[in-house]
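Extended Data, record AcrR family transcriptional regulator
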Amino acid sequence: MTATTDPLDPRDADVPAPPGAVRDLHRRERRRLLTEEAIVAAALRITAAQGVAAVTMRRVAEDLGVAASSLYPHVGSRERLIDLAVREVLRGVGPLPDSGDWRADLRGHVLEVHERLSAHADLAQHAFFSAVAPSTAEDLEALEHLLARLTGEGLDADLVLTAYDRMMLCTVADVHEQWQRRHRVDDAEVSAWLVSFSAHVAELPEDRFPHLRTRARRLVAPEPTARFLAGIDLLLDGLAARS
């Protein structure tokens, strides 16, 4: 009877293993190296290339060269994987800085969240809960730091929580809206509509629409980030005025 060669046996290192055994060895090595971090990184790569809809357990497994079943012990489900991906993106934001200007610090913090989500395709549509509701120890520590920083400036804690909640909600919604505009509507079509709408408003009867006529361009402001920050500034103004 011919002896069977074990590709893992160091005594047989000089004996070529059958192709099937080599594949099994490589597969086992990939499973050994599989971690939650590696799975999340793969999900973010797929999101960047094809959008969140393409992130399935099967697709992530293909990217990593493992069986889909091997992902579940690490991330549990596709829904949890997407949540982990959102949290990985937001983790890089860090705590609220302290430059001595709380308005500038909070504005910059919110803008960084906006920029990070914007850099990851349509991931923002899954960030409404993660960005607003703290659910991990890291989230709670960051929120505690933010409260300590802003109440230390004399701001009311309840108003800070309400304002920050609304800022995060506006941030996620704005990122998602901008992504939809970029990917679901042709840029030329949008530009043509903006010109047409602006001209239409400018031609409204002046006696009935005096304010809208003079602000036709403002209604269709083409720079979305500036419009977003203008909204954040209004919330900051309100927070400062009421504290």
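Summary. The chain has a mean pLDDT of 86.
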